[in-house]
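Milestone M4 deliverable, item 7.
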Amino acid sequence: MTTEMERLKEIESRKTALRTEVEKRGDDGKLTATTERMQAIKTEADALASEEKEIRSHMDLTDQLKPGKVPQSRAAEKSGIEKRADVFRSTGHMSIEQRSVLATGKIAAPAGISETIGDLSQAVSSIVDDVEAIDATGTGSWKIPYKKTDAIAADVTDGSAVTGTGADYDYVTINPATWGIVDTISNQVAKMTNVNYAANVENSARTALRRTAKAKIVAAVLASALAETRNGIALDADYLRNVVLGFGSDESVGGGTKLYLTKGDLYTLGKVRGTNEKRALYDIKFTDENNGTITDGGLSVPFSINSSLTDGTQLYGQPKAIKMPMWGDYEVSTDEGGEYFAKNLMAVRGLATANADLAVYHGMQIIKQAAAASGK
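Output delivered:
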């Protein structure tokens, strides 16, 4: 084994170790790596990727310069992603399998993109990952039943009719709606290798879909008759207790809940001070760039920043109560002609048929302050 091959093996081993560390979770199910450690891992991973690319480039060049070397076709060796990339580059059309886009709740940048293209430091709210995505391919409108009231038992007297009250049910109808997304990127992207070209365009469309889905989800909850609105909950020392203990029935607080709020409202909560020591009352910790936990004493609540909300309005409840059917695959196509040609741009168009709505009675609460909270 050559020195270069040995180094590539060491790099692969180190990348595996870093990936294991990034994915490690504690007994509470939360990621164990801190924000600082995540940044250090990213720096090391970028350096390893750069070194690996340089080694492979040198090996390829050395191989090409060997005496009597005859270029051979790699068509029979191409992986699935390379073949798909070739088709995308030649036709400008790609069909992304639906479940990889939303049903699993993970819309992430394909590995390797950061080697050639610097991604924007802008996350999309994880509410897209938190809701229940449904594969509705081949169906029409979705009718999702929900319970409005529980059954109530009553005393029974012999010879008299049983007077207990049965449960009351209803349903919400979610109709398919087409979401159209148009984005533009520099035509220089087309000068990259096939795989990187396809990966960048696909990532751009995925990100656009997440932003659209996020806005649709928030708008649906705010407009839903099933959501419970609570007014006058101030962003003060009692906020967390008011929100958590005000959710659920008289004998429960509900599980699987999460708080969605703007960055401005999170900043306001971070400024709340205790009456004696004047220290920050809420302990705010981030698990990634968009999610974290807010802790007040023994009370801890997961949160996610969401820019589709406005300062002074938050959502709290069970995100799985929000259903988002997807009718078919999300398709991506490109266009470099017309006005885009003159501007040296490539247009990326994404089309998806989907929709979202709240489908559990009081499954989400709309929390509002008496007046809009002030941000930074």
